[in-house]
Design brief:
Blueprint (H helix, E strand, L loop, with lengths): L7 H14 L12 E7 L2 E2 L3 E4 L2 E3 L1 H13 L1 E7 L2 H9 L5 E2 L7 H4 L2 E3 L4 E10 L15 E4 L3 H10 L6 E4 L2 H9 L5 E5 H10 L5 E4 L7 E4 L2 E3 L4 H14 L2 H10 L6 H9 L1
Parallel strand pairs: 1-5, 1-6, 9-10, 9-11
Antiparallel strand pairs: 2-3, 3-4, 7-14, 8-11, 8-12, 8-13
Helix pairs in contact: 2-8, 2-9
């Protein structure tokens, strides 16, 4: 058989063309199941928490659906609340999900997806407590998770760094302090305190809502500033919410249908 010699430059051009067609440069706008590093604080049931050595929760199931829609695969890492902000700002991870409220302060350092969950802070107290509203927290010891909107809400009432505000690394520790009698109340996202009170009737706790003092909040996926991923994920989040997948996941974790009107209105603003 006659051997045909092909110039080296022709071979290289052909290989480069194949690599370009296959996305060989490692960049992706979805569609090739590229793996992304996702950081979270898995101490926030029912949104994300550890079940054995696996991270589970509403946020995880929701992001799995969004990732599939966008054409990516997640590699979840449980690193804690404060560290996840450091990882994202330093571009050491691709995105974070951890019931992260979108607000103007955070927007200065991070990019957020279109919102995917509406929340509001709520008060958790013993059943025999005389606290009936946020204003009744004055003169009481209150536990919060450090660096959260719950902390900001309490500081708005008691004052920044007030001596009666006890800050913890996560809400689990804050609630344990309440159960042990170290504080009079916990302020955290409504889904978190409602879930704890429902699942722990022996602790004899009740929840108090106060829509006058606690504003509605919206969670978003958090990215490094200027991330190319935001556009793909905005589209995927909207598809998952609008095609019924979101409602199925919500019902599985919270037991009822989500109220989507306010969420969809906020999605149009972001």
């Amino acid at each position: 058989m006659k051997v045909i010699k092909v110039p080296f430059i022709v071979i290289m051009i052909g290989l480069l063309a194949i690599l370009a067609a296959c996305g060989g440069n490692g960049e992706s706008s979805g569609g090739d199941d590229k793996e992304l590093e996702v950081v979270t604080d898995a101490a926030y049931a029912p949104f994300e928490y550890m079940e054995g050595d696996k991270i589970v929760g509403f946020d995880i199931d929701f992001l799995d659906a969004v990732m599939e829609e966008a054409g990516f695969k997640p590699n979840y890492k449980n690193i804690g609340w404060d560290p996840l902000f450091v990882e994202i700002q330093g571009e050491k991870a691709d995105l974070a999900i951890s019931a992260i409220t979108i607000n103007d302060d955070r927007k200065q350092s991070y990019d957020f997806s279109t919102p995917y969950f509406e929340s509001r802070n709520m008060i958790l107290v013993p059943e025999d407590s005389d606290i009936q509203s946020a204003e009744d927290l004055e003169g009481k010891k209150v536990a919060v998770q450090n660096g959260t909107t719950g902390q900001a809400a309490v500081e708005k009432i008691l004052g920044t760094n007030h001596k009666d505000i006890k800050k913890f690394d996560n809400n689990t520790l804050a609630i344990m302090e309440l159960v042990q009698g170290g504080v009079d109340a916990v302020v955290a996202d409504n889904s978190v305190v409602l879930e704890y009170a429902k699942n722990n009737p022996d602790k004899k706790l009740k929840t108090i809502s106060d829509e006058e003092n606690f504003e509605s909040e919206f969670y978003g996926l958090m990215f490094p500033k200027g991330s190319d991923l935001k556009t793909d994920f905005d589209k995927a989040v909207k598809v998952v919410i609008n095609n019924g997948t979101y409602s199925e996941i919500y019902k599985e974790w919270f037991g009822d249908e989500p109220e989507l009107d306010a969420l969809k209105q906020q999605m149009e603003k972001e």
